[in-house]
Amino acid sequence: MSSIIHGAGAATALSTFNPVDSKKLTNLSVRSQRYIVAGSEASKKKSFGSALTVRHSQKLIPNAVATKEADTSTSTGHELLLFEALQEGLEEEMDRDANVCVMGEDVGHYGGSYKVTKGLADKFGDLRVLDTPICENAFTGMAIGAAMTGLRPVIEGMNMGFLLLAFNQISNNCGMLHYTSGGQFTIPVVIRGPGGVGRQLGAEHSQRLESYFQSIPGIQMVACSTPYNAKGLMKAAIRSENPVILFEHVLLYNLKEKIPDEDYICNLEEAEMVRPGEHITILTYSRMRYHVMQAAKTLVNKGYDPEVIDIRSLKPFDLHTIGNSVKKTHRVLIVEECMRTGGIGASLTAAINENFHDYLDAPVMCLSSQDVPTPYAGTLEEWTVVQPAQIVTAVEQLCQ
Amino acid sequence: MATAFAPTKLTATLPLHGSQENRLVLPIRLAPHSSFLGSTRSLTLHSSRRLNHAHATRRSPPVVGVQEVVKEKKSINSLLITKEEGLVLYEDMILGRSFEDMCAQMYYRGKMFGFVHLYNGQEAVSTGFIKLLTKSDSVVSTYRDHVHALSKGVSARAVMSELFGKVTGCCRGQGGSMHMFSKEHNMLGGFAFIGEGIPVATGAAFSSKYRRDVLKQDCEDVTVAFFGDGTCNNGQFYECLNMAALWKLPIIFVVENNLWAIGMSHLRATSDPEIWKKGPAFGMPGVHVDGMDVLKVREVAKEAVTRARRGEGPTLVECETYRFRGHSLADPDELRDAAEKAKYAARDPIAALKKYLIENKLVKEAELKSIEKKIDELVEEAVEFADASPQPGRSQLLENVFADPKGFGIGPDGRYRCEDPKFTEGTAQV
């Protein structure tokens, strides 16, 4: 299969892969066959691993290769860091729709604690980029009330962990009000912020809230991992009529990638094929994608051919992409940064077992963070999250 | 109509938006029988010390508490309302009362279930405020929201159907007693947890301000947030007072202080029971008004709403009121003293308004009777309508969870789950 050829150049930290972004639903069922064929064509036409531009109207040809450096000569686009990509997406949406506004602590004059909103207050004013007092529950509720009355707020949690204080509003109002009001009020908010285990930030600043929020009915959750999908998901989330929680990761803000110049969005409900393969499906999201790709390098050298999928949509799961992969490889490894108990991996394991049990040759294995409060000490912190060596071991175990 | 309310002797009664001078708050002496007349528990004396710290000379907003804004309505020449206004107010209060009484009947007959919280006795607050609002102003309430919805203009039929859980209810039967929403009438709910609605109200007010200042539209809409005494010990209340005052949002915070949470007396739960005083601490006027008197409430409301419309910011209004029934229909109401209940029953706001209208020769008895009859028929008809309406079908189960049903995601077959024919039947796996 053509995809194996691409496998050799597989595992650098940053993929320039552009995911399928077809707006037409009919393409979805055709998608999976399409990419395998198209991948080989793409490799013949362009030099190895060029980033293909993405347009709404075209059916996308995903280039499944993770390459070293993007071929800059043939492709247009501009290079930037992930936080700049988020900022660009946010700014473009604010330019496009005057109802889009930002609320959060230090988003205005300070430019955001991770500089995602840098410069926006100067451009759009203090009311559109609102510096709130430190009261997560109330300002999240305020954003929800504003959304009900016509605005489209983007709420920033300075650290995702702080949104625990806003749980009342997120669960009861954000998730439920569209339903309880019989469909009368929509809540088109985007709740975003950095989460995940950083560099010795301590337990409370290293939280992964995706597992806590996943049961709330009425919300969607997405996790970005590259500048390309960060900008795309930010824009899609802002344009969506549903409340969306966008999970960013503290350690990924400085990733650099070349992204297209023109307007594009990433579908909120789709997963991203990072590296097609034959032997095993590895499902991951956010920072763990990079640990997986690092492990994939080692695995390829050992002769394995892993298929890596960045699930991106944490709620709902893209069972189509995942299912097709399981049907092909028959082995699944989930690598996540969430806690073991009740995490995204746990839900995903259940979903796969429920839907694709017949296709599995081995039990679904899930590598998650330890169920411990993240310790401060560097060595201990390293052992709480999944490391590439563990991924390699797990794959070897599953593929016996 | 003389008030039976012997207030604290706050010697400075100050206009809401007065000027800078004579701002001094003089020491308050609290009589042991207290300003909370109904309560037989005595209020602890507050030290007058505290009040000398008032921000008298300090900063700009001339905010001090106001009591007894409207002392007495004396002669015909200084009547507070016209005949038409009087009839509107009377009809609204009668509607609230009859509707709630009918709710109780229907509950005990098994037509509605769950937690139902009735508003009997507090009608003056709802009518006093909401009848001053336009259709585009917003109202946010709590679980005791039937009458707020009715005053705002939601039809009795829609509310009753909602309580019966029928498709024709204002929220298609999906909300229930505690979640009355109406986009058309800008009734933003109906919240089950206390304090939860206050930030939503703050957001609606923020929207108004945004429309005016950023989108440059002509927007004078205000938001009125209703909540109780128990909520005033909740963090969300304070967080929103801060934000509303900080940004001068067009919002009015109305505390319906009926002295009791469920079985917890306000005095047992609150270190400083005088809620109106908490307004000035945040830089907004705090007003205390007799919530059993619709005309007094209306006067205060006029000031507060005008302030908000002019962009001068929020106001905190504490309405001392009382609920004649238990906290909910499941509450046996054993803790409240019979004497307290009797005292407030004697100050029934509907009876008081009726007396005022007749004594001041604004209306004739017969006109009021015809209103009562009309409302009776309206409520009966609402019940019949609700009875006759269909229950929601299975297909309604999965609708409205998401505004964009693509949020249910992509199924294993590659199609969006909302395209699955079983989805519209309500039986799809989502």
From TrEMBL, chain A:
Protein name: pyruvate dehydrogenase (acetyl-transferring)
Protein EC: 1.2.4.1
Keyword Oxidoreductase in record: yes
Keywords for the protein's UniProt record, in alphabetical order: Oxidoreductase, Pyruvate, Thiamine pyrophosphate
Enzyme class at the top of the EC tree: oxidoreductase
Organism (species): Camelina sativa (False flax)
SUPFAM superfamilies recorded: Thiamin diphosphate-binding fold (THDP-binding) (SSF52518), TK C-terminal domain-like (SSF52922)
Domain Transketolase-like pyrimidine-binding per the UniProt entry, residue ranges: 80-255
Function noted in UniProt: The pyruvate dehydrogenase complex catalyzes the overall conversion of pyruvate to acetyl-CoA and CO(2). It contains multiple copies of three enzymatic components: pyruvate dehydrogenase (E1), dihydrolipoamide acetyltransferase (E2) and lipoamide dehydrogenase (E3).
Catalytic activity: N(6)-[(R)-lipoyl]-L-lysyl-[protein] + pyruvate + H(+) = N(6)-[(R)-S(8)-acetyldihydrolipoyl]-L-lysyl-[protein] + CO2
Cofactor dependency: thiamine diphosphate
Pfam families registered for this protein in UniProt: Transket_pyr, Transketolase_C
TrEMBL record, chain B:
Keyword tags: Coiled coil, Oxidoreductase, Pyruvate, Thiamine pyrophosphate
Catalysed reaction, written as an equation: N(6)-[(R)-lipoyl]-L-lysyl-[protein] + pyruvate + H(+) = N(6)-[(R)-S(8)-acetyldihydrolipoyl]-L-lysyl-[protein] + CO2
One Pfam assignment: E1_dh
Domain (Dehydrogenase E1 component) ranges: 92-392
Enzyme class: oxidoreductase
EC number in record: 1.2.4.1
InterPro entries linked to this entry: DH_E1 (IPR001017), PDH_E1_Alpha_Subunit (IPR050642), Pyrv_DH_E1_asu_subgrp-y (IPR017597), THDP-binding (IPR029061)
Family matches, as SUPFAM superfamilies: Thiamin diphosphate-binding fold (THDP-binding)
Ranges that cross the membrane: none
Coiled coil: 361-388
Domain of life: Eukaryota
Cofactors named for this entry: thiamine diphosphate
Subunit note: Tetramer of 2 alpha and 2 beta subunits.
Summary of the function given for this chain in its UniProt record: The pyruvate dehydrogenase complex catalyzes the overall conversion of pyruvate to acetyl-CoA and CO(2). It contains multiple copies of three enzymatic components: pyruvate dehydrogenase (E1), dihydrolipoamide acetyltransferase (E2) and lipoamide dehydrogenase (E3).
Protein's name in the database: Pyruvate dehydrogenase E1 component subunit alpha
UniProt lineage: Eukaryota, Viridiplantae, Streptophyta, Embryophyta, Tracheophyta
